[in-house]
Amino acid sequence: MLTFLQHDPSIPVDIQDTDFTRDLLGRYVCSTIDEAVNNGGRPFDVVVIGAGMFGAYAANRIYRKGADQNLRVLLLDAGGYLAPTHVQNMPHLGLNAPDTVLVTRNDQDRGARNGVWGIPWHSNEPFTGLAYCPGGRSLFWGGWAPRLMPADLATWPNDVRAFLTATYPDVEREIGVQDKADYLSGPLNTALNAQLQAVASGTSAIMPDVTLDVVEEAPIAVQASAPGPGLFSFDKFSSGPLLLESIRDDIARRWTLNDNSRRRFFLVPRCHVIRLRNSGGKVTGIDLTYNGQFRSLSAPFNLSPDCQVVVAAGTIETTRLAIESFPVTRGAYSMGANFMAHLRTNLTVRVKRSALGLAAATTLEQGGAIVRGEIRNPDGSKRRYHVQVLASAEKGQNPEATMWTMVPDIDLLRNLLSNEDPDWVAIVFRGLGEMDGDRTAGPGGTTSFVNLTNASDPLQNDGMSARAWVNFAPTSNDRAAWVKLAAAAVELAKRLGKTAGDVEYLYNGGWQSAPPPDPFAVTKDQLGNTHHEAGTLWMGDDSSTSITDPTGKFHHISNAYVAGPALFPTVGSANPSLTGLALARLTSTAVVTALTPALSARSKSLYAGSLADWQMSGAGSFLQVYDILESVGGPGLLWYTRESFSDFVLELEWQYANRTDNSGVFIRVPNLNSSNPNDWTAAIDQSYEIQIDPRGYNSEKAMENDPLRSTGAIYNVNAPIRTDVAKGPWQWNTFVIEAVGSRIKVTLNDVVVNDFTDPRPRSLRGHVALQNHHDGSKVQFRNIRIKAVVPGVTELPVARVA
Q1: Which string of DSSP letters, residue by residue, matches 309-335?
Q2: Please, which residues have CB within 8 angstroms of residue 508's CB and are 6 or more apart in sequence?
Q3: CA nearest neighbour of 567 among 385, 238, 281, 311
């Protein structure tokens, strides 16, 4: 077995070899299942299933947002590590998604295609499938990331609509969409957008039953400009770099400890999750295969009793896992109904440069735009659509040939420039139309749904459980809208011309002067090649008419969530990636909130005989003697990792053995794992210490009775009012420490000894810690309890500890 990688480059590491490579990245990012679950660490607080675009993104955010509670996150993926970033950020590797293939039973499955692409489900329609690797499809996607517009979201939960409106700008900035013109710019891009704007301003109806509402610059997730001086650009977005950075960040914070038990974030590849075991409406275990061998995780051994599970294995696989694990029917509605993707068309034309107002090309020219509108159905209902427009002055029939690529040297750039067409601009019009969702769909029906295959049929299972069955069947309204979408794209292209012959259309193997007589037949795409599967576990406020709530949590399972487009009530007209990432933020926050102890005016114990929720930073340790903690060695801090506190009342008892003993109670301590976990000194200047020292000794001045260092002092900040309240050796004293905003009040043995309001607070939130001051100092603590300050109550009554 491989040993786990250390952060310190001077420590030799066992990196796996093949005949061709040293697997540096896989070893630096991934762990084996045993490294993750059998290292002596606490059970995992969160398990995320699927490390693709949305799973890796959610896991990264939970790891970051859960720092104050030191939440442990386990990320499982069915595939092996492939690449750290989008494949188009690297020189040409040929790692492209394969074509679609029809798989209705196991013997039609071709296995892994193009290295990592597999089709885990069976269907009546051809699919490309899933990319089995951390990062998943986000390593390969085209990058289009438009918002869902208000009309797209009309039937979504009100709170979700408000959240998306507020959150879209942050996600757009994060993935490189906010500044659209930093990737596609220049004369061709300007001319294309201007011409399309002119078409849009001329009429709202581009043809009967199809309106053209708005034209915008292409929202493509590429950040070409650096986010700040001296920084690299983020390039084309994928979840791969986020995942790598967070895991390496976690390792870096613990490298001096050589202790995996302290780590908070693990990625384990080659894990296929079979089912989630549940009891009483709660997930209690996870059955999986690891490298083909059956394994099981369960509470309280590998999973904490309050473990939260996020399923992010793609819409279809997530739905299979939900149906396999905890199926539910809501009246006429059931899991797997409401399956949707997009109606897609692809039209390629070329337009004379003169029609676009362009002179001869002097630079590599490419441009893009998005056109949005509405289609009226035969029954009078409406649906949204958009057309992605990409243009290139490069010779040939593929405007995207060099748009999504790294150009590694100046000679290749010159070659591309020399291939610019002096007369024509090639443009692709890719239409995406909204599909109907049928929430009453299911086996025996004629519309779209996801269900399970027959598990007893060896051609319909994966050896451990049934595969998913995908029934993909557009409605009559879908088909009518699809035809109109194809015709609208042709009409939009036609209007870019000024005179006869300005526009030519690619079909029948070449450029044609007339539009295709049947645009739908020439330009329609297969349903299964959009990667936009959505809707099967749709969210809603009403548990009787939806499967998940507005945070992505299953209504009937208290600790299981979904991340990804399976949550969409409607698919809308836009690519689902931006909205899926935004919803992953919402779900991540909900997961962390669910693991955050509720504020309560009742005291709760921070120590009940176990140090599982505490961590030692620095030298020394604390002995556990029944219900007592006793300091040994030092200097260092034992800090409560599971929660940080803002306004609170902390009660505890302490006693010392000798007059030379020294200790303190630290409050509002920063997360000490944010630096070297053995370095506790950040707490000295960034938090507050309530001093315990019978002598009040100042080591710098070699003097006793220093008021700022006497028992009850806020160390080096504010002296106590009285210094004669503490009891002698081996007598229990009671501290009540109240922290509300910038005010800290200390009561010792029922006497207020300190009441200080800091005009420049060091911190207003943080952890609680106990100090072991020096070797030989013996200070004991017990009955450590904390309660929240009740809003509106300025001062809580002090309760004596019995």
Answers
A1: EEE-S-HHHHHHHHHHHS--EETTEET
A2: none
A3: 311
Q: Find residue 290's DSSP bridge partners.
A: 271, 293
In this structure, the strands spanning 779-788 and 604-605 are antiparallel
- Two tokens at 672? 């000490």
Strand order in the sheet with 293-298: 271-278, 283-290, 293-298
Q: For residue 205, give the amino acid letter.
A: A
| Token couple for 291 | 């490298």
Q: Judge contact between 644 and 763, C-beta under 8 A.
A: no
Quick check: 347 and 429 in contact, CB under 8 A? yes
Structure tokens at 757: 């309001």
pLDDT of residue 599: 63
Q: Of 79, 90, 144, 143, which is closest to residue 114 (Cα–Cα)?
A: 79
Positive or negative torsion for Cα 6, 8, 13, 19: positive
Q: For 598, what's the count of Cα atoms within 13 Å in the CB-facing half-sphere?
A: 4
The number of CA neighbours under 13 Å toward the Cβ of 472 is 25
CA distance 62 to 589: 7
Whether 739 contacts 731, CB under 8 Å: no
- For residues 732-762, b (16+ Cβ closer than 10 Å) or e, as one string? ebbbbbbbbeeebbbbbbeebbbebebeeee
Identify the pLDDT of residue 362: 67
DSSP assignments along 90-157, one per residue: SS---------B--SSGGG---SBTTTEE--SEESS-B--EE-STTGGGGT---B-PPPPTTTTTTS-
d(CA 703, CA 724): 18
Q: Alpha helices, DSSP H only, in 495-538?
A: 519-523
* DSSP H or E segment with residue 684: helix 682-686
**Residues 328, 580 contacting (CB under 8 angstroms):** no
Listed in sequence order, the residues at least 6 apart from 521 whose beta carbon sits closer than 8 Å to its beta carbon are: none
The separation between CA 260 and the C-alpha centre of its own chain, rounded to angstroms, equals 23
339 burial type by CB count under 10 A (0-12 exposed, 13-18 middle, 19+ buried): buried
Q: Which ranges of 397-524 would DSSP assign to H, the alpha helix?
A: 410-418, 476-494, 519-523
Low-confidence stretches of the chain (pLDDT < 70) are 1-13, 202-203, 254-258, 362, 599-600, 674-677, 790-802
Which CATH number is associated with domain 604-788?
A: 2.60.120.560
Q: Summarize the chain as % helix, strand, coil (round to 5).
A: 20, 30, 50
Distances, alpha carbon 16 to alpha carbons 21, 369, 575, 644, 760, in Å: 8, 45, 38, 40, 53
Strand ordering across the sheet containing 449-452: 122-123, 468-471, 449-452
Query: What is the DSSP annotation of 556-607?
Result: T-TTEEE-SGGG-SS--SS-SHHHHHHHHHHHHHHHHHHTSPPP-SS-EES-
282-307 pLDDT, tens digit each: 999 999 999 999 999 999 999 999 99
Backbone angles phi, psi at 316, to 5 degrees: -75, -45
DSSP codes, 415-447: HHHHTB-SSEEEEEEEEEEEPP--TT--TT-SS
